[in-house]
Amino acid sequence: MTGMAFEKIIRVRGARQNNLQGFDLDLPLGQLIVVTGPSGSGKSSFAFDTLYAEGQRRYVETFSPYTRQFLERMDKPKADLIEGIPPAIAIEQANSIRSTRSSVGTITEINDYLKLFFQRAAGASCPSCSRAIRTESAASLVGHILDEMPGVQVLITFGVSVPAKTKASDFFDFLRQQGYLRVWLNDQVIRIDDPPKRLRLPAVVPVIQDRIEVSKANRSRLSEAVESALRLGSGKISVLEVDGGAEHPFSSGWHCPHCDIDIRPPSPGLFTFNNPLGACPECRGFGRIVGIDWGRVLPDRSLSLAAGVVRPFQSGQSRDCQRDLLRAAAIREVDVHTAFEDLPKKDQKWVLQGDPGADEHSSDGLWYGVEGFFRWLAAKTYKMHIRVLLSRYRNYQPCPSCRGGRFQPETLNYRLAPLHKTLPEIAATPVRDLVAEMESTTLPEGDPGAVLLRDQILSRLRFLNLVGLGYLTLDRPTRSLSGGEIERVNLTTCLGASLVNTLFVMDEPSVGLHPRDTHQLVEVLHALRDKGNTIIVVEHEEAIIRAADHVVDIGPGRGTTGGKLIFNGPLKELLKAPKPGSPLEGMGSLTADYLTGAKSIPIPAKRRLPEEFIEMRGIRHHNLQNVDVDIPIGVFCVVTGVSGSGKSSLVYDVLYRNLAGVSPDEHESPGVCDSITGDEGISEIIMVDQSPLARSPRSTPAVYL
Fold it and tell me: How far is the C-alpha of 254 from the C-alpha of 263, rounded, in Å?
């Protein structure tokens, strides 16, 4: 059989897993192998349930019995013999991640490198005055003083706190005992042995350490004065110009001397939202909180107050609130018969927020507002029916404190030069743009660790770009990725880990990828192969089949009519007609027929024309920027575009979720659009996607149907 010339091979004999018909084959190690054939022919049974299962089973058996109880149990595949198989990794399309904390940055480990890189390379600034903050030593401060004030007579001072209710004479006696004779008060030098009468001391008194002319000749004396002042002033000193009276504050720690503000020192925990040090205190690092969804509370703003624009006030015991609203509106002279959206902004704000100081018990005509109504409900959540009522009008929304960035304010004091971007801003930048920004980042001198961290970050960002995921951002929740996207993200993680001598089994990595980016995916697969790995890809995409070193074709049909080995060898041999007397003769390879052009999908001679449309106006969701779309009814309509262009956002989030009336769950609310019309004749809308129909092992196709 073709392929026996390789010295290192995976030898499979009698493969009978699922519908496989007990065939034998040898696979070369260190090559890109594509397993292809009709859907249901047994490709996944061979690649995943046989090869991967055996490789993973053998790897797990190397652990102790205690450790194996925590690992996934894999059954031994049905085969007579499997030899030469290396440790295996499966990269499937299933997105099983449900945690909202998981993001593209965490799953690719880029966030782990970023938190260390920010600690080393980010520059700190004051949150009040935006001046740069950095740790200083006495030597560096002396260098700044010599550069900024050459030839100037200065006073080196440090602050001493005055205890409450302390007399000036007692405080000055204390300073005199420490050997100090002068302080700086009221913009002048005051001798403590002859202080003016009725002198009031501030909370902190600047004590003069030395008076000196700034010059290189006096450098040693200046250094001694600065060191002493820093030690006695808890790392804070001031340099006063004798003639001009200008004050120059300095600090040796993470402190802004101009604003007297301390900032938290940089640490890895400060730059991760999965740590209490760095997580936003309000949303705890999730980036979202549960709040009132005004789209549900006021679903139709073309209604007036009298017509019931506030939906929760129209049923049950909440109807009393509708009467309170109309009574208060009459007192305030708000028009209750004008559409809510046409009311003045101040009246709309009054309806939502109410009168200052009003509550639900007000009896003097004050309106407590729709927000006050929900605050009252929130205080009654120990009652089941109140919790049910609140759930109808609540939804996940971006955290108002961090605006969805997940980090606490102290993290935002650190920025990367020269773009001066904070960590949340970097996480919100598309990968394709972030590569160039990270390449231009200013690195600290003499720090090889920072160079190594940046190289690791850039390596993973470039891999993400290569596999066609340059449109993703690092803060994109993993749970929102499609099966094809999660597979390519996992592929990037494996590339970044630089694994060698490993068997990678992949399930159609080209799914959801635009043909424009397929060649980049092929380059990534070849790069993984060139490191010494064996790549087995279950695939139908023609470009990837043609890029394979070795092809395994399983068929000829599906189910019981499949499971036979049609071909095993190089692609060029597959494209040749089988020789007379060959075991392949008469079996027929559908893959070869379509690759050679013997068979093709005919182009329709006549196409149906649409007569009606679903009209969507003002779509503003994710990357859709105020788009108007007409979807034809009664025809076969395809929505296409490059990966990440907004196809799923348009079809699933906007069209399906709005028409189906899907109540927002922990994922997201329906996509925002101004209007959807033309759907009056549609009785039902069904979403057919790649998600499993049921998770119960009792569920079968017959039961489901």
Answer: 6
In the chain, the amino acid numbered 667 is: H
Q: Are strands 123-125 and 132-133 parallel, antiparallel or unpaired?
A: antiparallel
Does residue 340 contact residue 301 with C-beta atoms inside 8 Å?
A: yes
In this structure, are residues 460 and 496 in contact, taking their beta carbons and an 8 Å threshold? yes
Per-residue pLDDT at 577: 59
The region that residue 526 occupies, defined by phi over 0 for left and psi between -120 and 50 for alpha, beta otherwise, is: alpha
Rounded CA-CA distance 346/657 in Å is: 33
Q: pLDDT by residue (tens digit) across 551-602?
A: 999 988 888 999 999 999 999 888 885 655 555 555 678 888 888 888 898 9
The C-alpha atoms of residue 551 and residue 566 are separated, in whole angstroms, by 10
Q: CA 9 to CA 297: how far, in whole Å?
A: 65
Helix (H) or strand (E) holding 506: strand 503-507
Q: How far apart, in whole angstroms, are the C-alpha atoms of residue 202 and residue 162?
A: 7
CA distance 407 to 279: 5
User: From residue 661, how far is each of 108, 296, 455, 654, 687 by CA, in Å?
Assistant: 35, 11, 47, 11, 13
For residues 356 and 508, what is the distance between their CA atoms, to the nearest angstrom?
A: 60
User: What tens digit of pLDDT does each residue of 609-644 get?
Assistant: 998 999 999 998 878 888 999 999 999 999 998 877
User: How many other β-carbons are positioned within 10 Å of the β-carbon of residue 59?
Assistant: 16
Please state the pTM of the whole predicted model.
0.80
| Secondary structure element (H or E) that encloses residue 138, with its range | helix 138-148
- Say how far apart CA 558 and CA 568 lie, in whole Å: 18
Distance in angstroms (rounded) separating the CA atoms of residues 636 and 608: 8
Label residue 290 left, alpha or beta by phi (over 0 means left) and psi (-120 to 50 means alpha).
beta
Query: Within 10 A of 598 (CB to CB), how many other CB atoms are there?
Result: 11
Q: For the stretch 381-416, what's the b/e string if a residue is b when 16 or more beta carbons lie within 10 angstroms of its beta carbon?
A: eeeeeeeebbeebbbbbebeebebbbbbeebbbbbb
pLDDT tens-digit series, residues 294-307: 888 998 888 999 99
Structural contact between residues 457 and 449, judged by C-beta atoms closer than 8 angstroms: no
- Give start and end residues of each alpha helix (H) in 404-539: 423-427, 431-439, 448-466, 483-497, 515-530
Q: Under a CB-based contact definition with an 8 Å cutoff, are residues 675 and 618 in contact?
A: yes
Cβ neighbours for 59, distance < 8 A, ≥ 6 positions apart: 87, 88
Q: In the prediction, which pLDDT does 291 show?
A: 87
Task: Write the DSSP string, 536-561.
Answer: EEE---HHHHHT-SEEEEEESSSGGG
